[in-house]
Automatic annotation (TrEMBL):
PANTHER family: ABC TRANSPORTER, ATP-BINDING PROTEIN
Protein name stated in the entry: Putative ABC transporter ATP-binding protein YxlF
Pfam family, one: ABC_tran
Lineage: Bacteria, Bacillati, Bacillota, Clostridia, Eubacteriales
GO MF annotation, one: ATP hydrolysis activity
Protein source organism: Clostridium oryzae
Amino acid sequence: MDSKYILKTNKITRIFKKEKAVENLSLSIPENCIYGLLGANGAGKSTTLKMITGLIKPTSGELIFNGHAWSRKDLKDIGALIEQAPLYGNLNARENLKVHTTILGLPDTRIDEVLEIVDLEGTGKKQARNFSMGMKQRLGIAIAILNKPKLLILDEPTNGLDPIGIQELRKLIKSFPAQGMTVILSSHILSEVEQIVDYVGIMSHGVLGYEGAANTGEDLETLFMKVAAKSIGDRRVI
């Protein structure tokens, strides 16, 4: 990884009560790539992403964003879709986006731009509550990219999607690096991630077991299982 890094985590740890959800995690994420953060449910992926987005604080360790220590000011350059999309069900796509452009002080022209990017410009007055799951996910991503972030974080974005929705979302995500966005994609669906990522980090029991370029010739599922097997029993209670 000789590229410039948009994000590095330096031995970040997060402890909940007496359990280490994430332990001494050091990630290196290059600019303008798609980085797959992989792990089984409970591996610490969501906790890691919540630390990067400022939703929770690391118990120890340091986050480096774009060459400097992370601060809340950096949130203007970070977009995120973690868990469910933050939608108002009684509003249409444009109205949902208008709420956020008002909060962010962005021009309404940005609404048209992101609706085109996520292919929702033809939804008209249809309320978000009547959207398919795939449409809701794309609208959530539209909200996340309103501020033209340098880093876009997507936590399990294909959960609940049908094959067509997954294919549409895959195409959308692959388009982002060319627009100047680095994507961190968290998932436990290896076959899906393998098709779009440039780099992978594999977590198990809160620990990083592997980080490197994707498509190195080794089957991702085999590598994943090696990491999982190695870390069994490593999770510690203090």
